[in-house]
Amino acid sequence: MGDAPEVSVVSVERAVELVTAYLGAWSERRSPARRRLLHQCWSDAASFSSWTIRVEGFDAMDAHIAATLRQQPRRCRRVRTCDVHVRNNKLSFTWMLLGQDDEVVLEGSEFGEVGADGLLVRVTSFAGQPQGADAN
Description:
Elements: H1 12-27, H2 31-41, E1 42-49, E2 54-56, H3 58-70, E3 77-80, E4 85-87, E5 90-98, E6 104-114, E7 120-127
Helix pairs in contact: 1-2
């Protein structure tokens, strides 16, 4: 049997930095500023998946966030709603999308993995409920 791959350990402080940049990117409509935030947290080959989409790579993630922002009211922002939970190279947290008057537009949670480069390599997002799901 071969050796198990080495798992890097992410500090809580580093995980909070990654999540802060990640959520900031989801709230930034200006492309250069959004890309700067993504460079702080997103690996070039990282993947993002949710109920409705899967994207791979830095440019695809930037384009996905831009398209999502175009569908939201202008002054929305994502804010973290819990501590960032960390175990080895994995992290999770919850968030809310707040509108202009701080009304909750959407709530979600994210599960992420951090690569050897210290950046997110995979994020799975759970927001709202999947299309066609029963309210039960």
